[in-house]
Design a protein that fits this description.
about 475 residues; alpha+beta; Arc Repressor Mutant, subunit A; 3 domains; 9-stranded mixed sheet; 3-stranded antiparallel sheet; 15 helices; about 40% helix
C-alpha cells in the first residue's frame, strides 16, 4: 500500500449462535440439511404468524457481551429493519436499533507494534437470512433453512489499520466466543462471517474518508485480499482526483477484485421501528451474575499465565490460546515435559501446519507430544528429526523414543566423530572454504548442509556450526 496513505477499518461480525432451535420458532438450526426442510410458517413469514423470542439467544448474547467487556442493557427491544431482502420472505429483518443488548466493549490484540485495544461499539441480536444459490446460465434458487437462525452482530469501532490487525482481531474474537461457548464459529459453514467497512486517508489527516462496505467475507485469506485490493483501489481514485463513492461492494474470489453491488444505505434508509409482536427484553443483575459465573478463564488470562509460567513470548502465547482445544492440549503436554518453550514451538510451527483449518483434533496424545519435546530439549534429536517424527506420529501415534531407537535417529553429538567428518567436508569442498574466508556467510551454511548429509540428517546443527567455525578460524591463523 502507498506509504502516504492510511487505511481505516471497522468490522461488523455476524456470528450464528449455537442454539438448537431458531430465534423465533422451534425449527432446527442444524447445518447441512436438505434445502427448505427446516422451515415453518413463522420463519418464512406467513401472514398471521407470531414470533416468540428464544430465551437462550439472549443468554448467549449477554455472555458474548460480558466476555468482551461490554456494558449490558437492562431494558432492550427488537426492531424491524425494512429493506428489500430477496432471502427473507417477509421483506424485513428483526434486529435491534437504538437499544442493543451490549455496548461499549473492547478487546486487546497483538498488533505490529505491540498491544492495541480495539473498541466494540455494540452487540445486538437479529435473525439470519436465507441463502441464495445462483445457477450457472441464469436463475436463482433460495434455501430458507437459514432464515431465522439466531445471530449476534458485533460492531467494532474504526480502530483497525491493516489487514494484519483485522486478522488478529477476528482470531481473538473467535477465540473468546469459543471459550464462552456461544457459537461454533465455523467460518467454512458461515457461522462466523464479517462485513468490512474500509476507507483511506492521507497520513496525518484526522477526518475519515468515504467508506465502502464489503459483505459476507468468511475466510481470513479472502478478508486479507479484499482489504488489500479495496485500499489500493481507493488510493488510486484519490490520487487521480476522483471521489470514492459510499457503496456496498462484493469481493470476487476468482478475480481477487471488489465490484459494486448497490449504493450504501444509512440507518434512516431502513425505517427502523419497534416490532409490535415482540415484548421488551429485560436483563436483571442476577441473570448477568449467573452468566458471568458460567464464563471460563478467557484467552487473555491464559495468555498472561503462559508468559509467566512457561517463559514463552506474548506472541506465541496468543497463538496457543486462540483455540480452547489447542490451549487445553498444550497445558496437558506442558505438565509432562521440562521443555515447555520447545513444546510451544512444535505446536505453533508443526502442529498448526498439519491441522486442517478450524480444527483442534490433534491425533497425537499429549504424552507423546511431551516426549517429543523432551527428546529435542535433551539434544537427543535435532529439529529436522523432530519434524519427521511428528509427521509419522500424526499418522500412527506412537512413543517417539521407540521410533528413534528402532530407526537409529538419535542425534550425533559426539565431538570426536563430528570433528572427523568436519575434516572430510572441508577437504571435499575447498571452494566453500575459500568463499567463507572471503566473508561469504552463506558458504558456512553450505558446509553445514554437507555435514547434515554426512550424518544422514542426525548431526547436532549447533555443534556442527561451532566446529566448522573453529576449524576455519584455525586455518586462517595458520595461513597468517
Amino acid at each position: 500500500m502507498d506509504a502516504d496513505f492510511e487505511v481505516v477499518i471497522g468490522l461488523e461480525v455476524h456470528v450464528e449462535l449455537k442454539t438448537e432451535s431458531k430465534i423465533f420458532c422451534g425449527c432446527s438450526t442444524a447445518f447441512g440439511a436438505e434445502p427448505n426442510t427446516q422451515c415453518c410458517p413463522i420463519c418464512i413469514g406467513m401472514p398471521g404468524t407470531l414470533p416468540v423470542l428464544n430465551e437462550q439467544v439472549v443468554r448467549y448474547a449477554v455472555k458474548a457481551g460480558l466476555a468482551t467487556n461490554c456494558s449490558i442493557t437492562a431494558y432492550g427491544k427488537q426492531d424491524r429493519k425494512n429493506y428489500f431482502y430477496p432471502d427473507i420472505p417477509k421483506a424485513y429483518q428483526i434486529s435491534q436499533y437504538d437499544l442493543p443488548l451490549c455496548t461499549g466493549g473492547y478487546l486487546d490484540i497483538e498488533a505490529e507494534d505491540g498491544l492495541k485495544r480495539i473498541g466494540i461499539t455494540r452487540i445486538h441480536i437479529e435473525e439470519d437470512a436465507g441463502k441464495l444459490i445462483h445457477k450457472e446460465g441464469g436463475g436463482t434458487l433460495i434455501d430458507y433453512n437459514r432464515c431465522g437462525v439466531p445471530l449476534i452482530e458485533i460492531v467494532s469501532e474504526p480502530d483497525l489499520r491493516s489487514a494484519a490487525q483485522v486478522r488478529a482481531y477476528l482470531t481473538k474474537l473467535r477465540a473468546i466466543l469459543l471459550y464462552a461457548g456461544v457459537s461454533d464459529c465455523r467460518m467454512n459453514e458461515g457461522s462466523l462471517r464479517c462485513d468490512v467497512n474500509l476507507s483511506v486517508r492521507r497520513r496525518g489527516e484526522k477526518a475519515f474518508g468515504t467508506r465502502t462496505e464489503m459483505k459476507n467475507l468468511n475466510s481470513f485469506q479472502f478478508i486479507t485480499k479484499a482489504i488489500e485490493y479495496e485500499a489500493d483501489r481507493q488510493i488510486k481514485l484519490i490520487k487521480a482526483g476522483e471521489k470514492v463513492v459510499q457503496e456496498t461492494r462484493r469481493y470476487d474470489q476468482a478475480s481477487g477484485k471488489t465490484y459494486s453491488m448497490r449504493k450504501k444505505e444509512d440507518a434512516h434508509d431502513y425505517r427502523y421501528f419497534p416490532d409490535p409482536d415482540l415484548a421488551p427484553i429485560t436483563v436483571s443483575d442476577d441473570l448477568k451474575s449467573a452468566l458471568l459465573a458460567e464464563i471460563p478463564e478467557l484467552p487473555d488470562a491464559r495468555k498472561k499465565a503462559y508468559v509467566s509460567r512457561y517463559g514463552i513470548s506474548a506472541y506465541d502465547a496468543e497463538q496457543l490460546v486462540s483455540d480452547r482445544g489447542i490451549a487445553d492440549y498444550f497445558e496437558k503436554s506442558a505438565a509432562l515435559t521440562a521443555y515447555p518453550k520447545l513444546l510451544a514451538n512444535l505446536i505453533i510451527t508443526e502442529v498448526f501446519r498439519l491441522l486442517p483449518p478450524e480444527s483442534a483434533d490433534i491425533p497425537v496424545s499429549p504424552e507423546h507430544m511431551a516426549a517429543l519435546a523432551t527428546l529435542s530439549g535433551e539434544g537427543r534429536i535435532n529439529s529436522s528429526v523432530a519434524k519427521l517424527l511428528l509427521s509419522e506420529m500424526w499418522e500412527n501415534d506412537r512413543d517417539p523414543a521407540l521410533i528413534v531407537a528402532e530407526r537409529g535417529l538419535e542425534q550425533v553429538s559426539d565431538e570426536g566423530e563430528l570433528a572427523r567428518l568436519v575434516d572430510e567436508v572441508l577437504a571435499e569442498n575447498p571452494r566453500s572454504v575459500v568463499d567463507f574466508k572471503k566473508g561469504k556467510e552463506k558458504a558456512l551454511q553450505a558446509l553445514v548442509g554437507r555435514m547434515m548429509a554426512k550424518t544422514r540428517g542426525k548431526g547436532n546443527p549447533q555443534k556442527i556450526q561451532a566446529l566448522l567455525r573453529a576449524r576455519l578460524s584455525d586455518g586462517e591463523k595458520r595461513e597468517n
